[in-house]
Amino acid sequence: MKIAILGGTGRVGEGLATRWATRHNIYIGSRDVEKAKNAACGYSCRLTDQGFECQIDGTSNKEAVEKADVAVLSVPFEAALDLIECLRPVLKNQILISLVVPMKKENGSFEYTPPEEGCAALRIQHLLPGVKVVSAYHNLSYRKLCNPDKYG
Ligand SMILES: NC(=O)c1ccc[n+]([C@@H]2O[C@H](COP(=O)([O-])OP(=O)(O)OC[C@H]3O[C@@H](n4cnc5c(N)ncnc54)[C@H](OP(=O)(O)O)[C@@H]3O)[C@@H](O)[C@H]2O)c1
Hints:
This protein is an alpha/beta fold. It has six helices and eight strands. Helices cover 38% and strands 24% of the residues. The mean pLDDT is 95.
């Protein structure tokens, strides 16, 4: 399967890409193509060094969506709403998996701050009526995702 990870240069993106890339084609999306290519190269090297074959490319968020069967939204909540607005013309038949958890840091600790709709995925679905939005992976810590010894 072809999977786009939007914001795939980030902490969760790295964990998902390195776990999926031995079985799927991964497109790391970013606002900055050079940053995406560097991240893709780093993830590929990590897997190759461990003896795995993989296919990971870096590109813009838009091109990643255009190439993929499934897109994973892996950017912070406020960024997600702006990004969706930009990607609306190219998000059509794909499934969009949203990892987004709206959190605000207040006095050194994080607070869950859901939108009026009840959760981030419902807001996103509202903005993208024709797209199949799936809400998933919210309770997977990037630290565990990036550690191949965790979760098998
Ligand atoms: N961290 C966790 O353990 C965890 C666990 C479960 C769910 N989540 C959710 O997963 C999502 C990603 O979390 P993360 O920790 O990986 O986030 P992150 O590392 O802070 O950011 C991910 C990527 O988002 C992009 N980004 C940042 N600001 C942006 C903006 N203003 N506009 C567009 N893109 C922007 C950046 O990519 P570019 O600069 O390359 O564009 C960045 O590399 C979040 O919604 C979070 O709530 C996180």
